[in-house]
UniProtKB/TrEMBL annotation, chain B:
This is ABC transporter permease. Keywords: Cell membrane, Membrane, Transmembrane, Transmembrane helix, Transport. Gene3D superfamilies: MetI-like. Its main location: membrane. It comes from Streptomyces achromogenes. The chain crosses the membrane at residues 12-30, 119-141, 153-177, 197-220, 260-283, 303-328. The keyword Transmembrane helix applies. It comes from the Bacteria.
Amino acid sequence: MSETKKTDEAAIPQQTPASEGSADREVLLRVEGLTKHFPIKKGILQRQVGAVKAVDGIDFEVRKGETLGVVGESGCGKSTMGRVITRLQDPTGGKITFEGQDITRLSTGQMRPLRRDIQMIFQDPYGSLNPRHTIGSIVSAPFRLQGVEPEGGVKKEVQRLLSLVGLSPEHYNRYPHEFSGGQRQRIGIARALALKPKLVVADEPVSALDVSIQAQVVNLMDDLQQELGLTYVIIAHDLSVVRHVSDRIAVMYLGKIVELADRTSLYEAPMHPYTKALMSAVPVPDPKRRGQKNERILLRGDVPSPIAPPSGCRFHTRCWKATEICRTTEPQLVELRPGQRVACHHPENFADQAPQDTVLLSAAKKASELVPDAALSDGPAEKEPVAEKAPAAEKKPVAEKEPVAGKAPATEDTASEEAPEAAGSEASTSEAAGSEDAPEATASEPAEAAATAEAVSEAADTAPAPEAAEAAAAAEPAEEKTGPGAKSTPKATGKTTGKPAAGSGAEESSDE
Amino acid sequence: MISYILRRTFAAVILLLVVSAVTFAIFFLLPRIAGQTADQLAQQYIGKSPSKADIAAVKHNLGLDQPVYVQYWHFIKGIVAGATYDLGPTTVHCDAPCFGYSFKNHQAVWPEMTSRIPVTASLAAGAAVLWLISGVVVGVISALKPRSFFDRLFMGVALAGVSLPMFFTGKLAQLLFTVQIPIFGRTYVPLTENPAQWANTLFLAWCSLALLYSAIYARLTRSGMLETMNEDFIRTARAKGLVERTVVVKHGLRSALTPIVTVFGMDLGLLLGGAVITESVFSLHGIGEYAVQGITDNDLPKILGVTLLAAFFVVIANLVVDVLYAAADPRVRLS
Amino acid sequence: MTELSKTGAAVGEPAAARRSEAFLEVRDLKVHFPTDDGLVKSVDGVSFSLEKGKTLAIVGESGSGKSVTSLAIMGLHRLGARGKNVRMSGEIWLDGKELVSASPDEVRKLRGREMAMIFQDPLSAMHPYYKVGDQIVEAYRVHHDVSKKVARARAIEMLDRVGIPEPAKRVDGYPHEFSGGMRQRAMIAMALVNNPELLIADEPTTALDVTVQAQILDLIRDLQKEFGSAVIMITHDLGVVAEIADEVLVMYGGRCVERGPAGEVFEQPQHPYTWGLLGSMPRIDRETSERLIPVKGQPPSLINVPSGCAFHPRCPYADIPKGNVTRTVRPELEQVSTGHWSACHLPTEDRQRIWTEEIAPKL
């Protein structure tokens, strides 16, 4: 590369020559436990009453030369994550390491030299270019800001960059409004590449562009990566685009990474139900597949509010596999297969992580109506009682009550008989909270927590009842308090209903 | 909502305190920066060739020998509790909202101001009604037919309205319609006395003032309407099959008016604090004229009083506007 | 018929004999906007027909004229500042009525009742100051002389029908209090409140997340089945087209370049631009190809539409037909197979060969 300049060389010494290929490549950027909360203030004194938990504890690393794709629905925190890892915004907590240097708390001044290495491309090719500046001055701005004098002069370098991104060097003196959307995005890319960055974070780089232009820009970014050895973090909502450009993909939901895997594993065998649902929702340009409803998982409702995210697994309010444990215990992001990390108690295409916990939440029952049987059974169904049970529960909501009632004589009290009802009513509140309405979610959250406590007291026998009742009475702090109480729940319900449930599943299948 | 209004009122009081403190400081400090001593200041309030003792007495009575914060404290105390001024031979009591006492014409500021408020208020309110109606109507018509003859004509008139100074149009109108063709009276008659006379004498002042403002409002309305009528929700309203008039008034104007109401509140608030030029052109004895008096006489209490009154009106107008805005636009959250 | 009549008023009297059989038929529609820079030919001769219960997808990129076509059917293009001196010609037959020559008020009365429209961004498409319910009530009462109470009940019924939970409560909510998906549902409720026979959806899911998009497409499909209305779906996303359309119309530079049954257009696309669109899309259902096959160049200016075939400057095959014909002669739509039309100078054999040998394997 003839273009290699002082700027590059100056930065190089700290790094060891890397890129021996594939998975073991050197880590360029490491993010640990990253959080970003936006406080919500209220009242006369503007006290902080809560926070929008845009990013709420995520870990990942970006290796040199790879492309990490980040997907998720709007409001999942992916854009905030992008702005925090480039330090355009300050993180609330966690640690960001770039080339071994902790950049989490660097000041703007301390960040300045690093700005050469970390660049960002934005979504809006109209908004991100100053209409009063010529293309030349826009693309050369990084040189001025960093006080870098490229070899052969700024103008020559800018013209080289323009031709690099497929624009004509004669465009140097034109203004942004003379260009189409695709060309403007190319200008944005040229500006980002001016200082030969090591990491480029692109936030929805193509979503504002027309389809035919989108492909041009995607190919361009691809070529530039090959040519300049760039590392990309590409944030997008379009799963097809992300799949096309990425080596590894992180799926975000409500401020968390729910699955992080290499492209092939993720698309061929997604493990998190959300990933699966997300992918199945992408419309495919093939009318023949329209009839095949079994491939489509229709999620109900919207993403809950990030102000009061659901307890436990954040996806449990919309998940067709959710059980008690999903509501009470947050699943950790664990590497279940090599190169595939997932945060789920009941992953798809893999052994259940909480096999003892089989009672579906009623939200899940409702959700499972929207999930074709094929989706439920296409995992290794033999190993998974849940997968088998799901269609059963869906078809006969009463079925769930039967095993409990059947078990009732064995346990001495009637409490366990009431348990499913309590659980049911609770889960329906939780659904109301989670499903449609963000503003209301806050209001019904305590209710849910209270209901949780009730469910605990009913199900978990007489002994812990007083405590649980107390927890129920103290509705507000219930979220914390249910923690210890709730831990006993899965076991209890597991004991009482686990086996009979499996039995009823068998019954159900023999009916068919 | 209530909490919001309370909070805003609280903020308004603080703001008024700050304004008064700043004004006080300016008028206290400026003469001193200019080199005047407390003695010279006190001297202004007495006749020619005063004796040393007289000066000292006045200085003491007015508190000019005290530090600025003490003087300010006395001023604030006066507003709440009233004040008594010892003028050597006599003592003057100034009742509870005491905004100071003018030693130049020996009158308390507050009653003097309150007697002038109706004049300024009459002027401002009448003009406001005129300019709001004419400005909005012209603006809407211009916006609906942009670049039409009507649009160009009215925007031309509006431009003239903005560029012609008040003392020109006002004086001209006055000469034409009170002297050449005497159809309008020249001396102010209170509304309570004779409403017809009141309107008659104020009409020219209203028109002159309204010409200036309606020009601004026509332009504001026009650009607001042009923007609103390009909004997606206007297209939706049309797609419903609504008649164009409903689309314009219910969907277009409602949105376009909101920012205008904001500006209107501010303008009205400002005018209530005194329409200086209009009042002097039409010889109306309003707040503005009082302010001019205070400034020419270098009469600190008057200036301070008018400044505070003007600030008060602006702050109140602001508060009202914000509450109205929130009522109009449900997206504005007050909590 | 080709001569442009001003302000769209009276294009002669189309004889009743030529009255259309189809529920909706558009014949040689042209919509031109004179501007300071020149005449913008937003739509330049588009024809299609649509039966009740069927869905037509109009596909194209920004500036292809797909939105203007739909606005013209609704009669919305001539309202507002831009529509003052629009020139329009051609015929639009809706259920036996001709709309181009109809008076603005006649079209207005059909708007919202017989034909309704939903828009891309439901947040900006709803008035921020009025309650969602009131906006639906308004839409109902324009065409139905009923009390507010009756209309409100109808609004609640519609909100319920489109899957908004607690409709009796949400009817009093403001648009900004709804989530994106819920807002689009409310928009649909508003559009369908008068049981229109034609529903035009202009990029209804572009602003939404995929999971919500799937919900909305599902809803539109269900409602269409229930009400038997004709649907025109305007989109740039071929995935959405495949999902919902019976017929596809591909537009480029204000003209129709390909039209046909959805299956055929995806299986045997007959126009290089359609190939380009298919090649530009990364697909989630196939093995990832190394590179996308973009269409080179930029979309055309509607003021200076390229001569001959509007696509020729971007077409990799423009030199195959002999005699410079692609640059000089505007190709007409020709029937390739039953109901499948394409406007391309390439000989059919060449097209067949290029598609099967060069394009299809790379997708």
